[in-house]
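Marked as duplicate of an earlier ticket. Keeping the data here for the record.
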Amino acid sequence: MSSSPNPPHCLTKIQKITDEEFSRFQRLIYDLAGISMCPAKKVMVSSRLQRRLVHYGLNRFGDYYRLVTGNAHPGEMQILVDLLTTNETYFFREPAHFNFLRESILSQPTANPFRVWSAACSSGEEVYSLAMVLADKLNTKTWEIMGSDLSERVLFQAQRGHYRIERNEGISHDHLRKYCLKGVRSQAGTFLIDEKLKEHVKFRQINLMRKLPNIGRFDLIFLRNVMIYFDQETKKEVVHRISTQLKSGGHLFISHTESLHGIAPELKKVSPSILQKL
């Protein structure tokens, strides 16, 4: 008896992405997420999307582009966004920000409830870092944190609050003891964020390039390591959209590698990469 033939996708030989095909994906991700991909990202786009071509038995990136932008597979656009948006993060990234939060903001009288928005939260490490600090300093007050991202995949991980043990670098021993549960047996090699933090946290999918939903105003907004992917005009639009959600006197934190020079006159710099709404 002859063996059954291989499924079509096993026989697919993917052709190299052309400049024209790459340009189409450049425009698409810019329109969807405001991300400007330089020509040097061509190899990255090709390598990340190849698995989807294999999945559908396609051998040309142009065919995949037509599939994504068509109506037959409505969920594929979100998969493309998840694949092409970079989501690297870790706990207590840029520690000076958390020191400023402890010593200069939370040491003063605060609103009750105190509301924080992590506007590009990725897989949740920034949100839970903030939650640990707020739990330490505002234990007798009401506080809440909203984390948002464009990617459904990373938001699912953030909601679980479940990480590989090597991801705990940056978390102090005291915070590990108070707010993290070490996995045992089948969960060995991982840790879980304690429910007493998670009850103060919620996550939702938000596209910063679109009109924001009704999320209220915040005392503190973290918008870090995302604007490096925006051109100047997009950056201006996003910052204006974000700053309208910031209370007067509230603080906006950006990455040390980013600048808002000449973009947001309603914000004054109070420390490197930390601004306050006038």
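See parent ticket for discussion. The chain has two domains: 8-84, 95-277.
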